[in-house]
Design a protein that fits this description.
The complex is a heterodimer of chains A (245) and B (407). With 245 residues, chain A is of the alpha/beta class. Chain A has nine helices and ten strands. Chain B folds into two domains: 231 residues, no CATH class; 157 residues, no CATH class. Classes of the chains: A alpha/beta (245), B mainly alpha (407). Chain A: One of its GO terms (molecular function) is ATP hydrolysis activity.
């Protein structure tokens, strides 16, 4: 079991945004984290990457909580933020080198992988450019390349599809599948539900800081038979229901 | 990680030198020399009037030393993307931050030394402190500063015991108590207490250095530190990182509420909000107004004040002209069903407001200083009225037409 979140209560200040959130992501599994704006998706992710500390409950990666061993905990994570964030004064090449340094990667091997990734995302001729001047989609690609350069066991991906061209979306999904086969776990938050439906193994639906429901598409369909067939229909039904109550 | 700090520090120092060269240009250095000379002369004269045993002197010493202890923050040189890119290195970040801590502490200690040197004669005269007492006071403020800095360091971690990074405790309460004991009770007890606080503070590092980093505080602290540095530089030159920053300025809302929401006022609405909230524009305006007023307050004469006053008024108006085009790259204004005729009229109204305000302030300054010369009083009023009228209604339309062609 890679990521285990148990009874997590947390948020930014004293007021909890998350109220008793429990779910897990197993080895080789892609879990989709879905919910309305403000449901607590990003807060959950901020807790996993250690930006926030839990008020109650715990977040463990392969049995290690951040307070047990910061180094062991953090080295297992690769993170792609929702808003791509890059160094103003570093070129694309230097961003890759920075990642290699930070994750202690073997330079030769990492560059081989980097070249492949750069080619996939059509960035190979922009190595000496400054990503700060790139468009949002291109900067997002830089973040993806940096994250998939690593050998992380857990990938945390926050809404990756907005701003990416269709080809890049497809390439990203292929990369995710490849890492899944190698045993990595992936937690991805998204609003693009038809893509999520096709690729995610399981879904965690957050509403108002709580896990409203979770399971595979088949399980969700069985749980809410009158809601409709697609993830989109089920999600809309549950979201409206949640708003009404 | 250690090399990373070295690299960042190098880049940081290059940037600072670049700006400092602009700040300390010849004129400013000259002005500074005169100012320091003047203040030094005033200070040495004032010292001659003072005697031992004044009731307010110890209070003043405590307040000045308290200010001294507040100078210098922890410069971590952390950047926004670090929380993503340095995520796996978090455990080793302590090495980086320790370097930052000691670098900042040494700089801050030098600041304490500077304050101490300046205050030394005052302390000698008013409380007749001996040399060992003075030196223990120096030790006290340096030790307090180290403890201060250590708390600033601690708060960048997710602390188990929040008091270790408590700002009120280490920035205000402890320094006030220790300094008061130093001055009113005994200098040596003060320095010993300060040393205990410092050593105790440094020992708390063991409690948190293995904990997880509070990236949000770490990044926010560094950004606010850099922001204040840039704000200082922005007084002298244009700082690109500050450009485009917008402030809410709620206290000026009453001005904006005066605008009637009519289609004809579309541009008035935009220009007024833009100029008030855009830091670059309002900063320039306030800066020139303050400098101009200060200059006029110190200048007496018949014609010279009028010339200077008109010159500054022209400068301020001239700097505002490019703002006419400020919203041109915003697609909305091209879609709005508003003619450019109103754009110019609205812009002129904003200019009239702004230049009128400056004209009144300048006039008050000139008249207050030169009350005895009626020629200057009348001259400045007439001159300003003519200049504002000509500038806004003759010069600006032509100037804008010309720039529209060249755009």
């Amino acid at each position: 079991m890679t990521l285990q979140i148990s009874n997590l209560v947390g948020g930014y200040s004293q007021v909890p945004v998350l109220k008793d959130v429990t779910f897990d992501v197993k080895d080789g599994e892609l879990v989709g984290l879905i919910g309305l704006n403000g449901a607590g998706k990003s807060t959950t992710i901020n807790h996993i990457i250690g930006l926030l500390t839990p008020f109650k409950g715990s977040v463990k990666i392969n049995g290690v909580a951040i307070d047990d061993d910061v180094k062991k905990y953090k080295q297992q994570i690769a993170y792609i933020p929702e808003q791509p964030i890059v160094y103003k004064e570093l070129t694309l090449k230097e961003h890759l080198e920075m990642t290699m340094l930070a994750y202690n990667l073997d330079q030769n091997e990492a560059w081989k992988r980097a070249d492949k990734l750069l080619k996939t995302f059509r960035l190979e001729n922009k190595l000496n450019w400054f990503p700060d001047n790139f468009s949002k989609g291109m900067r997002q690609k830089v973040m993806i390349v940096c994250a998939f350069l690593t050998n992380a066991k857990l990938f945390i991906i926050d809404e990756p599809f907005l701003g990416l061209d269709p080809l890049a979306v497809n390439d990203l999904l292929n990369l995710i599948s490849e890492r899944k086969r190698q045993g990595a776990s992936i937690l991805m938050s998204t609003h693009v539900l038809d893509t999520a439906q096709r690729y995610c193994d399981r879904f965690v639906l957050l509403h108002d800081g709580k896990v409203r429901t979770e399971g595979t598409l088949a399980q969700l369909q069985a749980l809410f038979p009158e809601a409709g067939k697609s993830l989109n229909d089920i999600y809309l039904t549950l979201a409206r229901e949640g708003e009404a109550s | 990680m250690k090399t990373l700090f070295k690299k960042r520090l190098g880049a940081h120092l290059t940037e600072l030198t670049k700006y400092l060269r602009l700040v300390f240009n010849d004129y400013f250095v000259l002005a500074l020399v005169f100012m320091i000379g003047g203040l030094g002369y005033y200070y040495s004269n004032a010292l001659k009037q003072l005697t031992t045993g004044l009731w307010w002197a110890p209070l003043l010493i405590i307040i000045v030393l308290l200010i001294s202890v507040q100078t210098g923050r922890m410069a971590t040189l952390i950047e926004d993307p670090d929380y993503v890119f340095l995520l796996p290195k978090e455990a080793e970040l302590i090495g980086y931050l320790k370097r930052a801590f000691w670098y900042s502490t040494i700089l801050a200690a030098l600041m304490q030394l500077l304050f101490w040197i300046v205050l030394m004669p005052f302390i000698q005269v008013t409380v007749s402190a001996s040399a060992p007492q003075l030196f223990s006071l120096l030790g006290t403020i340096i030790f307090l500063k180290v403890a201060w800095m250590n708390a600033d360091f601690a708060r960048k971690y997710h602390l188990q015991h929040k008091w270790m990074g408590n700002r009120w405790l280490f920035r205000l309460i402890i320094p006030v108590v220790v300094l008061a004991i130093s001055i009113y009770v005994n200098y040596f007890i003060g320095v010993i207490l300060a040393a205990i606080v410092m050593i105790g503070g440094l020992f708390t590092q063991n409690a948190w250095k293995k904990r997880s980093v509070d990236w949000q505080t770490l990044i926010a602290d560094e950004n606010s530190r850099m922001h204040s540095i840039y704000q200082f530089f922005n007084l002298f030159t244009d700082v690109p990182s500050l450009r485009g920053s917008v402030k809410r300025r709620r206290y000026l809302d009453w001005l904006l509420h005066k605008i009637k929401l009519l289609p004809d006022n579309t541009y008035l609405y935009l220009y007024a909000h833009g100029i008030i909230r855009d830091n670059e524009m309002s900063g320039l305006y306030v800066r020139l107004t303050v400098i101009g007023t200060l200059l006029l307050v110190f200048i007496k004469g018949e014609v010279l004040p009028i010339v200077l006053c008109l010159l500054f008024l022209y400068l301020i108006g001239f700097q505002m002209i490019p703002f006419y085009f400020h919203f041109d790259d915003n697609a909305f204004v091209h879609i709005y069903p508003v003619t450019t005729e109103f754009q110019l009229k609205n812009f002129q109204r904003v200019l009239l407001m702004m230049m009128g305000t400056v004209a009144v302030i300048f006039a008050i300054a000139v008249i207050a200083v030169n009350l005895t010369t009626p020629v200057t009083v009348i001259g400045v009023l007439i001159g300003e009225a003519i200049e504002v009228g000509l500038f806004i209604f003759m010069y600006v339309p032509r100037r804008i037409k010309k720039s529209e062609f060249s755009r």
